[in-house]
Design a protein that fits this description.
By secondary structure, the chain is an alpha/beta fold. It has two domains: 141 residues, Aspartate Aminotransferase, domain 1, CATH 3.90.1150; 250 residues, Type I PLP-dependent aspartate aminotransferase-like (Major domain) (Aspartate Aminotransferase, domain 2). It contains twelve helices and 15 strands. The chain has a seven-stranded mixed β-sheet with strand order 2-8-7-6-5-3-4, sandwiched between helices. Strands 11-12-15-14 form a four-stranded antiparallel β-sheet. A two-stranded parallel sheet has the order 1-13. Bound molecules: D-malate. The site of D-malate (MLT) has 5 residues, from loops. The site of D-malate has 5 residues, from loops.
């Protein structure tokens, strides 16, 4: 027996597992500490009432012989796919067919699994800093090469996101095959304009590349002129796959529901990527539970949309409180306008992990070190707006009163 040795190249622990372990150690030795967790981007508001009602009803159907359902179709049921098409795409002038939408259990799984349909020989471009799943899953697949002393991977093409370019990556100077983009961005919280995305779509169409576009945070966009989908950009259907999630939009992190859009126009030679993904999912995935699909459908009702908006506004306000408070405390801050994430520079002379420790020690606030998202994140830090309003305010007060 031989293992997939690529796994041995990975850091032994996933970023958020490392943070959870450190916080547990701290809380075990400081049992009275009032810890405020603004590290992992996990929601805290209860599910929208519309989804709860829909789930109760669906549970009753599952408990009745005449309405009981077994395996759901692996790509999603028509009632939810139709709603997604209508509200997320048609309403924004985008023409997407229901068989271009694949319902799933999460954007994390889909962005991780999508690599299955691409050759290991592809050259991958990743932003730095970046959501670690895109990197780690390509390491597992053998597309990353070896880790360099800088912490970067030998086969990746890196797209630097720095304070100088406002954390918006420049086009690569060489030809790449797969490009991971995430807007509004995790971790920096920065959003891309239509002109910005057009540049990537043109590059991808010219070079035969595929953009893997993670739009998990689109619901947080507050500026009306910003694109919520890459398919708002002309030409995107021949070069992009989009990942969406109900996790942050509707508080489904514990419910699990997301979807991926692969246009039928997206081809590699004469092979349709839509067909490949359909084939992959049919074999490896058994669909989203009926109860969950009804919960997701309900967020598109009038009542559901109003409840979702309330929650998003709540988190957005938290992000603003964090951003304003950090600025008052003298930090330079990015994001937090079209995103639940505030990204800021740590005090001079400290690493991101130094600041993690000092922040926890002095304020009992947990955040995420920027270097956990890649070497270019060193010297930066992320706080999330997903906490409760009270705890967020309290965290900001503690930070303002602390001396770093
Ligand atoms: C994060 O904190 O970056 C998110 O929770 C990541 C995720 O959605 O998996």
């Amino acid at each position: 027996m031989k293992i997939n040795e690529n796994f041995l190249k990975l850091q032994s622990s996933y970023l958020f597992s490392t943070i959870a372990k450190k916080v547990k150690e701290y809380s075990d030795s400081n049992p009275n500490a009032q810890i405020i967790r603004l590290g992992i981007g996990d929601v805290t508001r209860p599910l929208p009432q519309a989804s709860i009602d829909a789930m109760h009803k669906a549970v009753d159907e599952m408990g009745n012989e005449s309405t009981f359902r077994g395996y759901p179709p692996e790509h999603g049921m028509d009632f939810i796919l139709e709603k997604i098409r209508e509200y997320d795409f048609t309403s924004r002038g985008i023409d997407i067919d229901v068989d271009e939408i694949f319902l799933s259990d999460g954007a994390k799984s889909d962005t991780g699994n999508i690599g299955d349909i691409f050759s290991v020989d592809n050259v991958v471009a990743v932003c730095d800093p970046i959501y670690p799943v895109y990197v780690d899953t390509n390491v597992m697949a053998g597309r990353a090469g070896d880790v360099l002393p800088s912490g970067r991977w030998s086969k990746f093409v890196y797209l630097n996101c720095t304070a100088e370019n406002d954390f918006l990556p420049e086009l690569p100077t060489e030809k790449v095959d797969l490009i991971y983009l995430c807007f509004p961005n995790n971790p920096t919280g920065m959003a891309a304009s239509k002109q910005e995305l057009k540049k990537w779509v043109d590059y991808a169409n010219k070079n035969g590349s595929v953009i893997l576009y993670d739009a998990a945070y689109e619901a947080f966009i507050s500026q009306d002129d910003l694109p919520r989908s890459i398919f708002e950009i002309e030409g995107a259907k021949t070069c992009a796959i989009e990942f969406r999630s109900f996790s942050k939009t509707a508080g489904f992190t514990g419910v699990r529901c997301a979807y991926t859009v692969i246009p039928k126009e997206l081809m590699c030679g004469d092979v349709s990527l839509n067909n490949l993904w359909a084939r992959r999912q049919a074999t490896k995935f058994n669909g989203v539970s009926y109860i969950t699909q009804r919960a997701a459908e309900a967020i598109y009702s009038e009542q559901g949309m109003a409840q979702v908006k309330q929650n998003i506004d709540y988190y957005r306000n938290n992000a603003k409180v964090i951003s304003d408070g950090l600025k008052d405390a003298g930090f330079t801050v990015w994001g937090a306008v079209n995103s639940p994430y505030a990204w800021f520079k740590v005090p001079d002379g400290m690493t991101s992990w130094d600041f993690f420790d000092v922040l926890l020690e002095k304020t009992q606030v947990v955040g995420t070190p920027g270097s956990g998202f890649g070497p270019a994140g060193e010297g930066f830090f992320r706080l999330t707006g997903f906490g409760s309003a009270e705890k967020t305010l309290e965290a900001v007060e503690r930070i303002k009163n602390a001396k770093f």
